Protein: Aspartate aminotransferase
Organism: Salix viminalis
Amino acid sequence: MNPEMASPSSSSDRRISVLARHLAGVEMDSKNDSISAFPTSGSDNNSVFSHVVRGPEDPILGVTVAYNKDPSPVKLNLGVGAYRTEEGKPLVLNVVRKAELLLVNDRSRVKEYLPITGLAEFNKLSAKLMFGANCPAIQENRVTTVQCLSGTGSLRVGAEFLAKHYLQRTIYIPQPTWGNHPKIFTLAGLSVKTYRYYDPATRGLNFQGLVEDLSSASSGAIVLLHACAHNPTGVDPTFQQWEQIRKLMRSKGLMPFFDSAYQGFASGNLDADAQPVRMFVADGGELLLAQSYAKNMGLYGERIGALSIVCKTADVAARVESQLKLVIRPMYSNPPIHGASIVAAILKNRDLYNEWTIELKAMADRIISMRQKLFEALRARGTPGDWSHIVKQIGMFTFTGLNSKQVSFMTKEYHIYMTSDGRISMAGLSSKTVPHLADAIHAAVKQVV
Ligand code: KET
């Protein structure tokens, strides 16, 4: 549909519904004398919001809320994907501390607004990090990159741009996927469908289902792909499978929208984890990419990420960027400066960059060692079932296969907090807490069906 046609009718619909609500309110007021003529005044206790019902907690972030309320000394939060040290503490990377010191000591830095598109240097370096130093699309200025509010904000801005300017409004997301995806895309105006991804029987990729579903997707549809370390399953396609997915998608004109929240966390190597995205860029086609530095630089609360759109020509890319600015400006005007400055300081300096890759690898390795430890602990207890998926799965999470009843049992009896789909954040585990988790899983599997 032509977006110019869409807006007048939808805005008139909105006006009519506001008017209808207004009239209903006036009628109610006139029937009920006890309601003040000025309901927002403090003269009575009738809140204009009294009809508001309590919303549910977020399925992932709500786990932390519940965890924080638990006074137990043995409680363990394996809900949100946030890295913890062996001591169970959040980690600020050394290289981030160094970059922050550089920034603080640089008296020429000011706190002016950034441009709508963010810190230019950060944008360039982010595109290079994912697409590679010698990427022709970058050299030909066919990529536009805008700084956004971490991965979530990048997805949202990309989705709003697509809803306004792309020929298709349907986006296919994997089944299952990160719980926020359907909400982000629906609220941005896209219509969400799913493609088969995970096979619970094999605890692996349902490649045939994926191929069938993408083959029957309508031409031009958008397809959300996890760039690496699929959340929540920890199951990624092989490079050969990626190549088949690429060919299939390009032959049907499907639009790839990559979500990269874990670059470096899958293999421990930033370039290796970028490979699937680079395969799609190398064929000269178009795509979108949402990047997050929350996990791989440990910059969670700095809300720093980027949206890149790879286009066919520099001219198109420039026009696309001008429209991204029109999406961003009324949403949050322009992005925050601090996180972008940290990332840029690290990415542009060879020593700091190298130091980052070492720290990143150490995080990835610690997660892998937790996989091994948990697997061995379950084997030692003789826990019924095949737990080899714990060591096979990739990235921050293990998709255990535990059901929601078993999860609530573990929370109630063992004070272990995780999402109800049975996902555990391996990054929240330490050598000290593995036995406690293994005991809990063992009891849950034995006692709860
Ligand atoms: N994509 C994926 C796949 C993802 O797992 C997350 C975060 C994000 C994007 C967004 O992250 P941001 O902080 O906006 O850069 N996932 C973890 C945290 C969360 O749910 O917010 C999680 O799954 O635990």
User: Anything to note?
Assistant: The longest strand covers residues 143-149. The chain is about 50% helix and 15% strand. The pocket of KET is lined by residues 60, 80-81, 150-152, 178, 180, 226, 231, 259, 261, 292, 294, 300, 305 (CB under 6 Å).
